[in-house]
Specification:
single chain; mainly beta; Porin; 12-stranded antiparallel beta barrel; two-stranded antiparallel ribbon
Length: about 230
Amino acid sequence: MNLALCAAAMFGAMSVSAQEEKSPCETQCNVGLEIKSSEIWRGLQIGSGPAFKPMFAINAGSFSIGAEGTMCTGEDLGFESNIYAKYRFPFDLTLELIDYYAGGNWLGVNFDNIAKTHTIEPAIRYNYGKLQFYIALNFMENKEVDFYGHLAYDFDIFKVTLGGGDGIYTTSPVWGNGGDFAICNIGLEKETAIQINDRFALPITGGVALNPAIERFYAYAAIKFAK
């Protein structure tokens, strides 16, 4: 992990230099890398061990399309490669559409059964000052639609999230029971930066999350660099 952190710091230094030279053009291409102690998502742990999350996006005004990956390094090798499209309205309402891909034939077998390897999720995000509303519906083949929604508020000293859902978010990973709607994500998170020198600060995020529905508690930290 030390080697990964050193590599991330080098990447971050290059990102800072590149940001200073970024063109003010309306259409931009952005890349990034996030290194996480573990991948915690909506009150769930994806895979095990530290996770690497590469990012690529093209932004044109209020519209953006991009891709994000997740590669876990533990014994449970979580993998995702997701494509998304987002549009943000001037009043801070954002419409999102995400295609989650977790392995297998990307186009299905002979272009059939694509839904077996893809999950489609439309979502709505609305920011009102420091308060955020978020709802999403997760569509999977031969399964009920899974709902997730949260309220989040940034108190400056930390960000608080209260989320609820059903299906995958509240199903026990041990017994396989549950699945009804319940609170699944109670989280505290803080973003800060560690000053390395006059030109570079190491961005870091840390937090804790509790999923009461499946009785799981997580603590995590992440560093993220973007251009």
